[in-house]
Amino acid sequence: MTTPDPGIATDPAITDPAILDVVAEIHDTPQQATLAVAGAGNYALAWLLGVGGASRTVLETRVPYGYRAMTDFLGGYAPEQTVSADTARRMARAAWQRGMLLRENPMPIVGVAGTATIATDRTKRGEHRAYVATWDDDGVCVDSLTLDKGLRERAGEEDVVSRLVIAAIARACGVDAEIDLRLASTERVITESTPHEHPIRRLLSGDVSWVTVHPDGRMAADADPPAALLPGSFNPLHEGHTALADAAATALGVPVAYELAVVNVDKPPLTFDEISRRAAQFNGAGTLVLTSAETFQKKTKLFPGCGFAIGWDTATRLIEPRYYDNSEPAMLTALAEMWAAGCRFAVAGRTDNAGNFRTLANVNLPAGFHPLFTNIPETNFRADVSSTELRKSGLR
User: Fold this and answer.
1) Considering its fold, how many domains does the chain have in total?
2) Which comes out higher in pLDDT, residue 61 or 385?
3) Strands annotated E in the chain
4) What stretches of 136-198 show up as alpha helix (H) in DSSP?
5) Residue 54: is its pLDDT beyond 60?
6) CA dihedral in degrees (317, 337, 74, 45; nearest 10)?
7) Residue 3 covered by a domain
8) Which of 277, 96, 292, 286 is nearest to 211 (CA)?
9) Residue 9 within a domain
10) CATH code where residue 120 lies
11) Range of the domain at 69
């Protein structure tokens, strides 16, 4: 480690060739990154974008400098301290979520964040410190550094923090690089790595928005959103569900996955063990998406543009004001928002309590909302099977 001259400012346009070599190696990895820095780390953005191949790595950069900008970036969360390990961790998670939303291919995503307080045009009472975090599919890693206050001018501290950002990205991308952070003998970086919990536990804690369970049992958090979903409790999964998924795929023109909401309006949330049990039914049967969206308003906000396969009875409830605080205007507003989100509903017929087969034609749709719904003809699907009856018979 070398002690920098505090009187020399670092120009990001005149960069250490070793840094540029590391950036080139980063661009050669499959990882794609979304970056957010506040307070310092801006040179790192210039270095990343200044080396050929940046478009292979960088999806987006953000600089949420103001407190309101930071709160907005964190999805409405207002941090007690904008410069802290916790804020860096939350920023990295938000960056990762943005990356998952913005990616155009299944490349691995790294959320990168830096938050710092460094020398400025006024004397600061507190320490000059920085926190840099990376978030990926495996876990989160946070680097913490307290700078020797007064040793450098602002540009020198900016250089150190930016080098720390590049080093963190290199580590997350699997690039074996020794980067001179230009630390003084009194400074050291403290690194804390934390692997993610089980994806289902992350969903239950609110850490992720949805979990995709592939037919081979693999789970992915906040993966590519589904094109269409068949919501249900799947207790148990039966041939009526699989037949409806096939019929809905034909009606909607896209593949249909299954969706299990782990929370319910009228029942306690499902436990980890119960979710795991129900998810295991889909091994080899289809893709399951686990969410915390217990209403269609939440589902359509979570997955704009998604199609939904529902039964006649669900379609009836969807337009009943009593499910919207007994307000018809609220119901109409909700339907309009679902439509505006690009969502649509494929409705299958079902037998009512009196034994009559009911279809979309029996649903008293509000005027003007007919295009939001598509009928699945009885000739394409009819399955008079009940999960309740199957549970009573002991078939779970």
Assistant:
1) 2
2) 61
3) 32-38, 58-62, 109-117, 128-135, 139-147, 189-195, 210-213, 219-221, 228-231, 257-261, 288-291, 307-311, 344-348, 350-351, 357-358, 373-376
4) 154-172
5) yes
6) 140
7) no
8) 292
9) no
10) 3.90.950.20
11) 17-195
